[in-house]
Amino acid sequence: MSKEPRRLAESFVHLGLGATAVPQPPFEGGTEWYEGYGQRHGADGREGRLVSQHTFTEDWDSWEMHPVGDEVVICTAGRMVLTQEFTDGRQEQVALEAGEYAINAPGVWHTADIEGSATAIFITAGEGTQHRPR
Prior knowledge:
- There is one protein chain.
- The protein has one helix and nine strands.
- The protein has one helix at 30-41; strands at residues 13-16, 20-23, 49-56, 62-65, 71-85, 91-97, 101-104, 109-124, 130-133.
- Strands 1, 2, 3, 5, 6, 7 and 8 form a seven-stranded antiparallel sheet that branches.
- β1 and β2 form a beta hairpin.
- The mean pLDDT is 94.
């Protein structure tokens, strides 16, 4: 294992079975990267977690939902407003500033509005993730 530090925004981490932490190849965006991630770690099923960091300067243009596990969203810089849509159709908004977090429960659709710029760390149970236009 390399002793060199890594930047989370560039090299995500997979938390897997047996309390493992596996650095991932550089994130290049797009569905291809996530498909590759699924091939590398899909055997961990619902217990696998992807730890990632993203910086946003615009509102999200889609909704997403993770059906098999919780997702933790930790705002580390800036401000973002997370909108959650529950299975009964009810929507709630959670404003997050640096150091604050929210949890997207399984099956809850979510999107975010960004005020200026915001950075967040995501700990995601990504198996079966779905997207829809906003």
